[in-house]
Specification:
It contains nine helices and 13 strands. It is of the alpha/beta class. The strands form four sheets. It has a seven-stranded mixed β-sheet, with helices on one face. A two-stranded parallel ribbon has the order 1-12. Strands 6-7 form a two-stranded antiparallel ribbon. Helix 4 links the parallel strand 3 and strand 4. Bound molecules: pyridoxal-5'-phosphate. The site of pyridoxal-5'-phosphate (PLP) has 12 residues, from helix 3.
Length: 366
């Protein structure tokens, strides 16, 4: 237990754990936000209070990520999965080509949507355990963009170096890695991320787009699916997910208070390194991702025995370490260590793993 009344360590891949201080802030402002006599949930999205919230959320995001002025920031509903459709609808003229680097479950879904709009050039990972090295020669000459899944939430892989694409823009699904490490926004044409992993609650998706890529949708593109709509209305064309945006703003404030991305990235590296080190030294647990493709956010591991994995997940939950079951397509266990997971959550899990390993060894010798 984390020491707070009934709170557990929640290793869910998403929606994921949030800092207690953020939840308490929400609680404190719930009934009467800044003397308006109402909660953010009940407030007009056209009110000056809500406009203050959405503007501050964008400013904080720009500051934390160092987003250059020529990039637009949008708050969109529909999850990262809607971006699988919006990206090709806005960036890929009909029947032309886009390149997708296929590294797992999410990239596959993104590719499926793009193939409804045009031709998809697929560059595949040699194995599910690594990220391919991609150079300009591998990419179709007339490709409109190269899509990557920056962190593969299910497979536990991550890009440690970006594909070399020359002047072709990189579009990156950063749902499970946004704000977890230092990146150069200018290396990308467009970044998108559902909020419910590293950024707050479900319901809002952040899109950061080079303004040169906006406004190229076809004439029959539905209004709500055109980036142009969000660009010309500051994400207020219709009612945005106001409460989710408010919590994202609080999360961004929290990240700033932590010391910004550098501090958070260092903490994430430390958390993941500690965990990998333990797994690599243990003879019971395994993670088979290539060392330079290992995710800092989502770490799948297994005992190689379905029976032991099931027992592990059950026993862990009994001690307040919850949501450790791996994705059904991978099996085993998975621990997600997003920004809001304190180091205590990692050491508590390792302590439990040691204890479990000890029990298994003793029973094998009995
Ligand atoms: C969770 C996730 C998605 C899907 O997000 P939704 O917001 O549920 O649509 C897409 N891509 C990645 C990398 C994810 O982790």
């Amino acid at each position: 237990m984390s020491g707070l009344s009934g709170r557990v360590f929640n290793y869910s891949a998403g929606p994921a754990t949030l800092p207690v201080s953020v939840l308490e802030k929400v609680q404190g402002e719930l009934l009467n936000f800044h003397n308006t006599g109402m909660s953010v949930m009940e407030m007009s999205h056209r009110s000056k209070e809500f406009k203050g919230i959405i503007i501050e959320a964008e400013q904080l995001l720009r500051e934390l990520m160092g987003i250059p002025d020529r990039y637009k920031v949008f708050f969109i509903q529909g999850g990262a999965s809607l971006q699988f459709s919006m990206v090709p609808l806005n960036l890929l003229p009909r029947n032309e080509t886009a390149t997708y680097i296929h590294t797992g479950t999410w990239s596959k879904k993104a590719m499926q949507e793009a193939s409804k709009q045009g031709t998809v050039q697929v560059i595949k990972s040699p194995t599910a355990n690594s990220i391919p090295h991609v150079t300009q020669q591998d990419i179709h000459q007339h490709s409109h963009y190269v899509h990557i899944t920056h962190n593969n939430t299910i497979e536990g892989t991550r890009y440690s170096e970006l594909p070399e694409t020359g002047s072709i823009p990189i579009v990156s699904d950063m749902s499970s890695s946004i704000l977890s490490e230092r990146i150069h926004v200018a290396d990308y044409g467009l970044i998108y991320a559902g909020a419910q992993k590293n950024l707050g609650p479900a319901g809002v998706t952040i899109v950061i787009a080079d303004e040169g890529l906006i406004g190229k949708q076809s004439e029959d593109c539905p209004t709500m699916l055109a980036y142009q709509t969000y660009s010309s209305s500051d994400s207020l064309y219709n009612t945005p997910p106001t409460f989710s945006i408010y919590v994202v703003k609080l999360m961004l404030q929290w990240m700033k208070e932590q010391g910004g991305i550098s501090t958070i990235a260092d903490a994430n590296y430390e958390k993941a390194s500690l965990f990998y080190k333990y797994i690599d030294e243990s003879s019971l647990y395994h993670n088979r991702v290539d060392s330079n493709s290992r995710s800092f956010m989502n770490i799948p591991f297994t005992t190689d025995s379905e029976e032991l994995d099931t027992l592990f997940i059950k026993k862990a939950a009994e001690t307040g370490l919850v949501n450790l079951k791996g994705h059904r397509s991978v099996g085993g266990m998975r621990a997600s260590f997003y920004n809001a997971m304190p180091i205590d959550g990692v050491t508590s899990l390792i302590d439990f793993m040691k204890e479990f390993e000890g029990t298994v060894r003793r029973e094998a010798h009995a």
